[in-house]
Structures are given as C-alpha cells and as structure tokens.
Amino acid sequence: MIASVLDIDKVGREDSFYDLGGGSMQAIRICARAEQETGLTVDPLTLLENDRLVDFVAELRGANSTAATES
C-alpha cells in the first residue's frame, strides 16, 4: 500500500517514509487506504511522527489493542 502510493517498487521495515519521498499528502492517502482496508481510523500524524514502517505498524497495533479493550 505504501509503495504504491509513493510509486516505488517496495518498502522495507526500516525504511523512512520521508527518505522514500513521502510528505503530508501521501500520508493522508496512505491512512485513507489503511482505513478502507482495515476499518481502523488512522491519523496521518501517526505516520508523520512514526516514519519508519516498523514504528508506524507498532503504533497502529498499539492503537488497535487500546481500542479493543475500550469497547
């Protein structure tokens, strides 16, 4: 998903969103797609503050587990 939005072949776990040419508009697109595909609300600020894929996914997992325990 991230690779297709950034129009690159692949993204590694340790790659930085910014080093791959990402910016705020791409973050919005990526988060909108993530929301469509997973049903989770994803704030683009989460990606902008956690620009390595591994960190972004960890934040999403943490937010998802917090939301699940609050339900």
UniProtKB/TrEMBL annotation:
Organism field: Streptomyces caledonius
PROSITE patterns cross-referenced by the UniProt entry: CARRIER (PS50075)
Pfam families, per database record: PP-binding
Residue ranges annotated for the Carrier domain, each copy included: 1-64
SUPFAM superfamilies membership: ACP-like (SSF47336)
Protein name: Phosphopantetheine-binding protein
